[in-house]
Amino acid sequence: MDYQQYLRKWSASYKADLTDDIMAFWLKHGLDKKHGGIYTCLNRDGSLMDTTKSVWFQGRFGFIAAYAYNRIEKRQEWLDASKSCIDFIIQHCTDAHGRMYFEVTEDGTPLRMRRYLFSECFAAIAMSEYSIASGDKSYAERALELFRLILHYKNTHGLLEPKYLPSLQCQGHSLTMILINTASRIRAAIDTPELTEQIDRSLKELQTYFLHPEFKAVLETVGLHGEFIDTCNGRMINPGHCIETSWFILEEARQRGWDKELTALGLKILNWSWDWGWDKDFGGIINFCDCKNLPSQDYSQDMKFWWPQTETIIAMLYAYLATGEEEYLRRHQIISDWTYSHFPDHTFGEWYGYLHRDGTVAQPAKGNIFKGPFHIPRMMIMGYTLCQDILNKSK
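and the corresponding structure tokens:
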């Protein structure tokens, strides 16, 4: 393989697909020019199916639009879209205690609050990225205040409703991993020791509790001290989450001058998760598997969702940047070829989100409360910059 030609090809493709397809689709069909923010419940052709707004996607697209402005091209419409989403969050999506809702109406009337802190995490990275793009430091300061609120709720017993009754004492991988990225993105705008301290805590928790070498896996749910819970939920592996975690770690390793221990940790998780997730019969990364190879409880266990594929594309580029090992570029080619031959909609634009195991489309909508403009454009922005970094490294 002529890796320079290969990377130049993908670099150009990522940039063109982001600007001409993904961002154009969502700015045309999703941006709410009356109330502010973004709609995500869009049918295949971009028509609106439901005016309910996902709060975490206000933060997600607020971040993406500013991230594209900072990394790809300084388009005013992207900066304006980011501010529209952030303003909508500030004006409509926060309760009296600072917690953020999960769903609101198009004009911001609250509909649902969940126990999770993900809406707050995505709002924080949107504010920090917009601060970098706009030069307005107040947004970074607001992001830091929000980060402190997240930690307050996470660490104060009784503030968040537990997922299970006291008879099951457990903890989940999701918040541990997302706080690595949340702190990292805020740190890019306003660097204070507490951000790196939280990254260190998350990394320690990840290694102490969630890594289970006996299964060569990162488990989604474990006991309070990392105990293996021998139930369907306790045995669950989410390869997409684990692969996303791996590149969060590799990104932090790079931040620390390619710290050897962190690099090794990120690569180990990536390799384990690729072995669990890659479908050798049909291709693509599956949703869930059982660490004892028992039948998975989740009905969508062998489906191919959009986001595990995009996270794998990012992770393989990061791994190649870290090591120069051709195996990671080979995997990048495998996952990219499969993803790009199944997910993009060449008729109406954007990508399908949900495929059956064999790669056929399960349902054609472009968005809902959970799918919208985040994983795909983030992959394209990062794919472009990582390809450029690899090419520049070789000069």
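(Above: one complete record from the training split.) The mean pLDDT is 97.
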